[in-house]
Write a structure and sequence with these properties.
Helix content: 25-40%
Organism: Roseibium algae
Number of domains: 2
Structural class: alpha/beta
CATH architecture of the largest domain: Alpha-Beta Barrel
Distance between the termini: 15 Å
CATH class of the largest domain: Alpha Beta
Strand content: 25-35%
Pfam families: Ala_racemase_N (PF01168)
CATH superfamily of the largest domain: Alanine racemase
Radius of gyration: 23 Å
Shape: elongated
Protein name: Alanine/ornithine racemase family PLP-dependent enzyme
Number of helices: 10
Keywords: Isomerase, Pyridoxal phosphate
Largest sheet: 9 strands, mixed
InterPro entries: Ala_racemase (IPR000821), Ala_racemase_N (IPR001608), PLP-binding_barrel (IPR029066)
C-alpha cells in the first residue's frame, strides 16, 4: 500500500457529524459541514450529507467545483470572501458566499446578472478576532447597499472567532451578533434568516446551556474530523478522536549519537535546534517531511519521540527498539498537520468506506482515492 498516506475512517467521521448535528439540532442550530480540510472531496462531502448536515461550506472555489463535478448538488457556501477575479465562477457553483467588501458584492451582482442567476450573500461582522468582517457600526449601510444589488439575496450575517487572535466565542460576542441581526431586521425587514455564529470553536459555548439568541448556524470542520475542541484541543465527549491516521514508511534505521557535532548554524528552515545528549539511540528516518506535514502537529505512538524534520525526512527516536526499514509507523494529527498533508500530492489518501456508501453499513473495506 502506498506511503505516506492518510487513512480516513468514514464511519467514525459520520458518527462525529451525526452526534454534533443532533446535539445542535435540539438547540435550533443547523450545521454547515466544512469540506476544506478534505479539499472538497465528493466522497467526504456525501458522508457529511448522509449524517444530516444541512449544507456544505468551503473556503476555495476550486474545492466547490470539485464537488459539483463529483455530482454534489446540495447547497454550498463559499466561506471566504470571493476574489474579484473569481466572481463568475462563484455565482455559477456556489449558492451563497460570505462577504465583507461592497466592491465584491457589486461584482457578484454583475456576474449573477450576466449568468442570469441569483446569488445569496451572508455579511461577515468583525467581533474582535481581527480576521475578516464589517465593523458593527458600518453593517447597516452595507446591508442596505447589498439589498439594492440586482440578482443578490441577503441571507443574513455571520462572524468568525478564534482563528487569528484566539478570541473565544462567549455570551457577550454572540449576544452582539444576535443584537445586530435584530437591528437589521428592524431597519430592513426580515433579512437575517441565517445568523452563523462561527466554527467548531463555538461548540463549548453553544452546548453550555447559554442563551443562544438568534444564532441558528455553525460551520463545523475540525470537530467533525478530529473530535477535538479547537479552543484547547481537548476531546469532545462522545466523539472519535482517531478517525484520521497518517502512515509513513521507514527508509533508514540505525544506532546513532543523539547529539550533533561540528559547528552549529541554522537548519534548512531557519531553526536553531538544541539537542540533548542521551547517548546512542535507535534513530529511524521516515519518508515524509516539512513539505508534506507540520511535524509539530504529529502525535507518535507511545515510546517514540519526534526529533525533527527536514523537507523530506522525519527523524524519530524509537526508544529501546530498532525498527526495520520498510516498516510503517502511524501518527495522529492536529488540524495544521492534516491541512498540509491533504494539500501534498505526495501523500496518498485512503478512505475506509462502507461497501454500500449510502447505507452506512458497519462492514468496511479499504479503498484508495486519488489526490
Amino acid at each position: 500500500m502506498s506511503t505516506p498516506r492518510l487513512e480516513f475512517d468514514l464511519k467514525k467521521i459520520h458518527h462525529n457529524a451525526s452526534a454534533l448535528g443532533a446535539r445542535l439540532e435540539r438547540l435550533g442550530i443547523s450545521v454547515t459541514g466544512v469540506t476544506k480540510a478534505c479539499m472538497g472531496q465528493p466522497r467526504y462531502a456525501n458522508i457529511l450529507l448522509s449524517s444530516g448536515v444541512s449544507s456544505l461550506g468551503d473556503s476555495r472555489i476550486e474545492n466547490i467545483e470539485t464537488m459539483r463535478r463529483g455530482g454534489v448538488s446540495a447547497p454550498i457556501t463559499l466561506i471566504r470572501s470571493p476574489m474579484l477575479s473569481q466572481v463568475d465562477r462563484v455565482v455559477r457553483h456556489a449558492d451563497t458566499s460570505f462577504n465583507s467588501e461592497q466592491d465584491v458584492i457589486s461584482a457578484l451582482s454583475a456576474a449573477a446578472l450576466k449568468a442570469k442567476c441569483r446569488h445569496s450573500v451572508v455579511l461577515m461582522v468583525e467581533l474582535g478576532d481581527l480576521r475578516e468582517g464589517i465593523l458593527p457600526r458600518d453593517l447597516l449601510a452595507v446591508a442596505r447597499q447589498t439589498l439594492d444589488c440586482p440578482n443578490i439575496d441577503l441571507r443574513g450575517i455571520g462572524t468568525n472567532l478564534a482563528c487569528r487572535s484566539g478570541v473565544a466565542p462567549d455570551s457577550k460576542n454572540m449576544g452582539e451578533l444576535s443584537r445586530l441581526a435584530d437591528m437589521l431586521d428592524t431597519a430592513c425587514g426580515p433579512v437575517t434568516s441565517v445568523v452563523s455564529g462561527g466554527n467548531s470553536s463555538n461548540l463549548k459555548w453553544a452546548l453550555s446551556g447559554a442563551d443562544i439568541g438568534r444564532i441558528n448556524n455553525l460551520r463545523l470542520g475540525e470537530a467533525i474530523l478530529l473530535g477535538l475542541d479547537p479552543l484547547d484541543r481537548s476531546p469532545i465527549a462522545g466523539l472519535h478522536t482517531d478517525a484520521i491516521t497518517l502512515v509513513a514508511e521507514v527508509i533508514e534505521s540505525k544506532l546513532k549519537p543523539s547529539q550533533a557535532w561540528g559547528v552549529i548554524a541554522q537548519t534548512a528552515f531557519d531553526d536553531q535546534v538544541e539537542t540533548r545528549d542521551c547517548g546512542t539511540i535507535n534513530q529511524s528516518i521516515l519518508a515524509i517531511g516539512q513539505q508534506d506535514i507540520d511535524p509539530d502537529g504529529l502525535t507518535p505512538p507511545h515510546g517514540i519521540e519526534i526529533l525533527g524534520a527536514s523537507s523530506d525526512h522525519l527523524m524519530l527516536n524509537t526508544g529501546k527498539h530498532s525498527v526495520a526499514v520498510g516498516s510503517e509507523i502511524e501518527f495522529q494529527l492536529n488540524y495544521s498537520a492534516l491541512l498540509r498533508a491533504m494539500t501534498s500530492p505526495f501523500v496518498a489518501k485512503k478512505y475506509m468506506k462502507p461497501i454500500k456508501e449510502t447505507s452506512m453499513r458497519s462492514d468496511f473495506l479499504i479503498t484508495s482515492l486519488a489526490s
